[in-house]
Amino acid sequence: MLNENLSDKNLIINTERFEKKIEKSVIINDWKTIQLLNEESEILSPIKVDFKVEKVSNGFIANGRINTELKLSCSRCLNEFKYNIESDFEAYYISKDFEKSLSKIEHLNSLDNTIYYDGINIDLTERIIEAIILKVPELPLCKEDCKGLCPNCGIDLNENPDHNCEEEYVDPRFASLLNLLKEDKDSK
Q1: Least C-beta-crowded within 10 Å: which of 43, 55, 57, 158?
Q2: Which Pfam family, giving just one, matches this sequence (predicted)?
Q3: Are 12 and 44 in contact (CB under 8 A)?
Q4: What domain range is 57 assigned to?
Q5: How many CB atoms lie within 10 A of CB 72?
């Protein structure tokens, strides 16, 4: 998968290098595309990430904000358009060593937005990718009132609002049934 190749060293936080809290702004310029749920999308502007990682009793809380712009395809007219992403993220990081000491009930309760990390580094990359993907609508539209494509001929109805197909489309599989109906009308 394409997203597995996305990384940035500025999103990897060494947990031993700060006392209580770290705040950082990162600009990611080298991510060119991202795999969304329904399509691969070009990233049109650098990804700006502002985040804070704070040490708490059992781990670290990370939260922040992401800004970027993607190129999407409209689900109605298929035209490409720019889509602005502004998204927040939050995650609770706990050491894998601590995970083993949790009871089953504590483990189930802690699963909400909890990530277990191994070693001394926390990588925010997956949270950034997830926040971008979740901000994209399931059926993206170039504009709210997009008219889409003509179901008969495929012409863009946004560019040709007065378009009206002269010929009624008949599925070739049903053409012989239509001929039977015409013959029945003619015989009466």
Answers
A1: 57
A2: YceD
A3: no
A4: 2-135
A5: 21
Token look-up 């009624």 returns: 168
In 3-79, DSSP assigns E strands to: 12-14, 21-28, 33-35, 40-43, 47-56, 59-73
Instruction: Tell whether pTM > 0.85.
Output: no
pLDDT, one tens digit per residue, over 142-163 is 999 999 998 888 889 999 988 8
The residue among 108, 112, 124, 166 whose CA lies nearest residue 14 is: 124
128 and 185 within one domain: no
Closest CA to 22 of 66, 62, 58, 65: 62
- What is the per-residue pLDDT across 21-49, written as a single tens digit (0 to 9) for each? 899 999 999 999 999 988 899 999 999 99
Centre a 10 Å sphere on the Cβ of residue 102 and count the other Cβ atoms it contains: 14
Tally of structural domains, the chain: 2
